[in-house]
Amino acid sequence: MPALDTYGAQPPIELIRQFMDFQGWYDRKEIGSFRRIVDVNFVGAMGPPGGGRNPITARLLRHFHFIAFPEMENDAKRHIFGTILNTWLSATPHFGHMLDTFLNTTLNLYTIICQELLPTPHKSHYIFNLRDLSKVFQGMLMMNPKKMENQKKLLLLWYHENVRVFRDRLVNDEDRKWFDNLLRDMMSKEFECDANEIVGDTMLFFGDFIEISKEYEQIINEKKASIFILTESNMEYVLEEFLEDYNASTTTPMKLVLFQDAIDHICRINRILRQPRGNAFLLGMGGSGRQSLTRLASHIQDYTCFQIELSSAYTINDWRDDIKHSMMKAGVQNQFMVFLFSDTQIKDDSMLEDLNSVLNNGDVPNIYKGDEMETIFRSMRGHVQEAGLQINRSNLFSAYVKTVRNNLHVVITMSPIGETFRARIRQFPALVNCCTIDWFCPWPEAALQSVAMRFLADIQDESITEDILKSIVRMCQYMHSSVIDASDLFLKELSRHNYVTPTSYLELLSGYGNLLEKKKTEIQMAAYRLSTGLNKLASAEVEVKNMQLLLAEMKPKLEQAARATARMIEKITLDTIEAEKTRAQAKEQEAIAARLKVENQMIRDDAEADLSKARPMLIAAEKSLKALNRNDITEVKAMKRPPVGVLLVIETICIINNVKPIKITKNAGRLEAEVKLDYWTPGVQLLADPGHFLYTMEHYDKENLTEEMINKLKPYIENPDFQPSKIEYVSKACYSLCLWVHAMYNYYFVNLKVKPKMEALAKAEEVLVETEKALNAAIQRLKEVEEGIEQLQKLLQEEEERKAELERQKQLCEDRMGRAVRLIDGLAGEQIRWTFTVAELKKSLKNAVGDILLASGAIAYLTPFTDTYRETLLSSWKKVLGEGVPHTPGSDPVSTLGDQVEIRKWQIEGLPRDTLSVENAVLAMHSKRWPLFIDPQAQANKWIRSLVTHNDIK
């Protein structure tokens, strides 16, 4: 019932008593209104006061009828368990005679354990009941009796199940040794055998994960190994394969070290999980592997392992949803589930109340909604029908609860230290009564070394040889053991608890690798910076020598460049004078050519002016001539009696074309004989081919008109009948020819005037051409000279740039040499100090293996101790460390991990200046766990507040 409140009252009890007395309660909303409740009966089940149970007031108990359930007699127990065991042994009749011996020995063992192993404040879980007795026989029944080849194997099975049920919960070696002696003595006495010979000295385990058939069989025997029975060393490889398979199938792989204790606990948890209604209560310190081993054992059994994800927003409703979904998976979906729950996840004791109900009854009251209940009833209908029961809500839900209890395995992990654990054992007895308890002992030395070897072997450091690694592993194990001893002394002398857990050991191992890498990187960076400085100084000395040689090489090059520059300047000067002369000549020739061009143009213009007078008539004549066609000419040629005008035109055409007339003599033989010139006949012949005639006329060479032709034409030109205006009326063709003849006649006189001018122009043009040739030659010479000067100027510029570059390099070299000399002279003293510091850093780099080990141990273990205990532990560690691990004599956590500049900054921000405070600050800053300061004077509080002020943290 509920615990007593501050005043010793139990209000829930008084509420129940009020109902018993008055058959109801007062309504809390309607003040003064009494609610009467009818048809309600109370059945109470409870143990007698004591053992954490409070007495119940007699005012309530007087309303009940008492029925006592005394301890079951041995005869009844013998009958119940004998019937069960007899059915199992019926398959092997040759072992039937051992039935009574098994029953009597087991009952006697149970009785002695209940009498001797009594619960105490430190052993509050030493509570035994008939469930524990039944678990012994339940474990035996897990094995197929047909696989029992001989009596020895049957005895081993019985021995194993007693060990698993009773021994696995014992807290110390003293109790375990007492139990081993008791069990072996009873086995030797009752079964008349040598228990030591049958059982041996090694751990004995049965399990089902070796055979493919998944049958419960012996799996470890150090003396005999077969395909299904392994030695302890071989078992590690088998479980490693399961671990690899688990890590391959999950997003959160586990880095487990399967030392012998871990293997033993895996076998124990595996045995619990394979049992129907098998629930485990794992007790041990944090970091001992309870949860990890449970996950691996669940994977071995192919069960789904579920664990709540706790957060600040996680509520009781979330908890109810999680546990409800797990139960429905186990009941409705018929999945094998492992519900893993740790005491660090307890936000409210109602969580344990729900688990207590699940362990006792397989159900949490009022957790399902209406639709969820319908889902449960539908899924259970087939199971109820197969069982031959009536289908109703009661039977359906009972089948569901049974399925949940068989499929859902609750594994609870708790730390057995403190009053909180004992109070929970009292308040929630199902944690002990309905669970198989497995006590996780402190790791033995072999386990500590195995874990250390696994973690430290991953460190990639060439300085850690195999021998040094072994020494480091032994040192880690020694640190852990020495701190346990120091904690016992700490408790005795100062009455202060310091719990040394595997978590501290794991922090030592993981922190060592991280700090070692960080410290070595820090040392290497410092050594690199100093080595770089020394290399710079050495290179500066070499550079000074090289620059001196370079300057010596540059001097003749500069002199040679100066001489080459002078020669080029002289050559350019001479070429420039020559270019000026050539340019003057070119200008003179250019002036003459310009003058000649002007004069020639004047002559050309004068001749053009004269020609322009005759050109219009000539153009009109040619145009009229072009207008003629063959028919026009043919028409003239066909005239039999040509008019006078036509005859005149034909005569002029013959004269211009130098066609001789035919002489015709009239009155021949007479004195008055007259010779007449006939131009018509040869003229008609000239017109015989009109096309040729027209072509000849259009392309007539008017420049070759002679004076004789002109003289012959003159009478015609002056003849009034030969005017175009008159000829136009006679013949169109002759009109055009007349115009053309007049134009030729006029052109002759114009040309006669222009021709001397053109001849003079031609001579002037010849002179101009010669002058331009001389000018072009002068220009070409000038161009060649200028190009030569330009090329020389480019070469001079390049030579000057080369000379300037040499001078710049010389100056730069002198400047650099000056700086290098000043640097060497200025750092002459530092060079010695840096060389010494680099040598010291190399030693520190080598000794970091041991120095960081001491510092990691201090972070993991020393912070709860006072300075005296710290010094004692560090001194003992250094003695052991000196045997095989390189380290710096006199090193301490502050000198190894501390930065004097940062420490000085902390002190400015309020950190006390004493050695212990500085050491605490260094250790806290390098720890991966949240620091918990015992700070009665609020010194750490002030320092931390000042430290984080710049981050705007209050």
UniProtKB/TrEMBL annotation:
The UniProt entry's coiled-coil ranges are 761-816
Q: Which GO terms describe its biological process?
A: microtubule-based movement
Q: Which UniProt keywords apply?
A: ATP-binding, Cell projection, Cilium, Coiled coil, Cytoplasm, Cytoskeleton, Dynein, Microtubule, Motor protein, Nucleotide-binding
Which InterPro entries does this UniProt record tie to the protein? Answer: AAA_9 (IPR035706), DHC (IPR026983), DNAH3_AAA_lid_1 (IPR041589), Dynein_HC_stalk (IPR024743), Dynein_heavy_chain_D4_dom (IPR024317), P-loop_NTPase (IPR027417)
**What's any one GO cellular component for it?**
microtubule
**Domain Dynein heavy chain AAA module D4: from-to ranges:** 254-515
Name the Gene3D superfamilies for this protein. 1.20.920.20, 1.20.920.30, P-loop containing nucleotide triphosphate hydrolases
User: Dynein heavy chain 3 AAA+ lid domain spans which residues?
Assistant: 104-192
Q: Where in the cell is it found?
A: Cytoplasm, Cytoskeleton, Cilium axoneme
What are the Dynein heavy chain ATP-binding dynein motor region domain coordinates in residue numbering? 904-947
Q: What is its main location?
A: cytoplasm
Which residues, if any, are the signal sequence?
none
- A molecular function (GO) term: dynein intermediate chain binding
Annotated ranges, domain Dynein heavy chain coiled coil stalk: 529-876
Give the record's family classification.
Belongs to the dynein heavy chain family.
Query: Which protein are we looking at?
Result: Uncharacterized protein
Q: Which organism is it from?
A: Melipona bicolor
